[in-house]
Amino acid sequence: MAGVSARAPAIVILGEGSQEAARRVRAALDGAAIHGLAGRTSGTDLTFRDFGETVRRLLREDVPIIAFCAAGIVIRTLAPILQDKRAEPPVIAVAEDGSSVVPLLGGLRGVNELARRIGRALGVTPAITTTGEVRFGAALEHPPPGYEMRNPGAGKRFMSDVLSGERIRLSGEAPWLMGTRLPFDPDGRLAIIVTVRDVEPGERELVFHPRSAIVAVDADGADLPHRLEEALAKAHIARQSVAAVVAPERDAARPEVYAAAAALSCPVRLLPGKSAAELARAAVPRPIEESGDASIAIAVSSEPLDVGSIGRARGWLSVIGLGPGTDDQRTPEASRALAEAEDIVGYETYVQTAGPFRPDQRVHASDNREELDRARQAFVLAAEGRRVAVVSSGDPGVFAMAAAVMEALDGAEAAWHGVELRVLPGISAAQAAAARAGAPLGHDFCVISLSDNLKPWAIIERRLDLAAAADLVLALYNPISRTRPTQLGRAIEIIRKHRAPMTPVVLGREIGRRDETVRLVPLSKLAPEMADMRTTILIGSSTTRFVPRADGSSWVYTPRWYGEAPKR
After folding, report:
1. Domain residue limits at 338
2. How far apart are CA 29 and CA 24, in angstroms?
3. I want to staple 474 with a disulfide (CB 3.0 to 4.6 A). Which of 100, 336, 341, 539 is the partner?
């Protein structure tokens, strides 16, 4: 359905010359993030390496695009994937220095209004070329936020008739059209109808529904979306007029509530309360419309509703894997969650890696040994309706924050279970080190932490012995520290009982970061002093082997077959 994109805009810059203008635009657009070309920009919210790939992905994800570059570059990049003008988010080209603003795509999704906001931020007049806006100062097919056009397919013909001299009869209140040059006439043959009621447009009519109704629910069951539709029909309220589905806070996690809201293309808002009528009166203090269902109440305001002022949204908590450390080794999903988060929670070093952050984002950094406290803090914030990102290096599910978050949730209060929880994977330290060395994890492997902070050393020794005896490739995390200087030496002794002296070993330290080192040695040469807490050690199985490289060094890989090599 056409409408303003719910995603915050992406400001895409290709060089440092656009930084100042881009920051001014970002300050004018809530939640917007600056995406900078890696190697040519610094201090941006996000980085990218391929312009074409990035803007095409943003378009597919319905993200408004503000590209600081020549309009022709954007046109040639996006033209091959354009299909439906009603589905395209706003796309705007801005001169590198911010001296001109050109709306390119998204005329039905608010591109001209977005261009005006950008123009005001930069002190320039946008180059708007839409015929209706040029002649009448109005874009009928794009009403402002708070209004929904019921029959957008009729808009082009309607405007064509207006341009040919037809007059317009107005029924209802359309304040956004009052300052325009549209030819209104009580006897006009064309009609614009603004109403919350469920009316079918006539042949020469445009119908706009103000988002001024809420539907409050105190009901469960998979049929809730259907029941809401029936209740609206009985009350003669257009589904396009529903601004929000209001539910009690205790039902924050009920999937049927969100399915019902999705069917009505509106958000869910949460309020304290019990009955549907009580919720409706709290949201909109006006008489309740008759719906015929005591567990569903409908209230209609006299004007479009500010949904953000009704209760709170369902908070979300994303546990994010940052990967080895650089932006380009972070998943786009993780980068989007970081850009959308209001609060960033994590170990101080990892928080710094995840940044920089916008001024409107709150950072909650803490010591590395406070995992459970961090998880609880994140849930407290998310239960208030905030968008929270908990950051980990590598993959959050591998000796990292995902387990701490789940532990905090286990047996927690109901409000925490109402939070939308997501775990977003990242490239683990073992994967990163393996990729630098070749393919040492090409066959069965296991991952063992040598830290005995949370488990007895006797268990670690037994697991090392069993895994080595099972001929698994071993990935060793947290191999050594100042408080644990002897464990790695003991681990090597155990493994050597089961492995040949020439077994390949990979020591990957700070992979993906400035101080990255990768060292390959045979097991016979492995010594504790070769590693520290920032090192991941990969110890091969009986089939793991070195492969010479042209530069005199080696690759390491573990064949996918076991025993004799298959015949080729």
Report:
1. 317-427
2. 9
3. 539
Position 567 scores a pLDDT of 65
- Profile the chain (568 residues) by mean pLDDT over runs of 10 residues: 66 95 93 90 87 92 94 94 85 95 88 92 89 76 88 88 94 91 95 96 95 90 88 95 94 91 94 89 88 89 94 96 84 88 94 85 87 95 96 94 96 89 96 96 96 93 97 96 91 97 96 90 96 95 95 94 71
- Cβ atoms of residues 452 and 479 within 8 Å: no
How many alpha carbons lie under 13 Å from residue 430 in its C-beta half-sphere? 23
Residues 165 and 77 in one domain: no
Compute the distance between CA of residue 148 and CA of residue 4 in angstroms, rounded to an integer. Answer: 10
Q: Any long-range contacts for 516-519 (C-beta under 8 Å, 24+ apart)?
A: 516/436, 518/433, 518/436, 518/437
Strands 517-522 and 504-509, bridge-based pairing: antiparallel
Q: In this structure, are 297 and 322 located in the same domain? A: no
Name residues whose C-beta falls within 8 Å of residue 287's C-beta, 6 or more positions apart in sequence: 299
Whether residue 348 sits in one domain with residue 243: no
Domains held by the chain: number: 5
User: Can you point out the beta strands (E) in 186-289?
Assistant: 190-194, 205-210, 213-217, 242-248, 268-271, 288-289
Examine the fold and report which residue of 370, 399, 427 is the final residue of a domain before the chain moves on: 427
Tokens 């996006």 -> residue:
78
Distances (CA, A) of 273 to 247, 249, 329: 9, 8, 45
494, 465 in Cβ contact below 8 A?
Answer: yes
Listed residues 246, 277, 309: the one ending a domain: 309
CATH at residue 283: 3.30.420
Residue 137 is assigned to a structural domain of this protein: no
Six-digit token string for 263: 């069917």
Identify whether residues 203 and 305 lie together within a single domain.
Answer: no
Inter-axis angle of helices 224-235 and 255-263, nearest 10: 50
456 neighbors 508 (Cβ within 8 angstroms)? no
Write down the pLDDT at residue 2.
Answer: 46
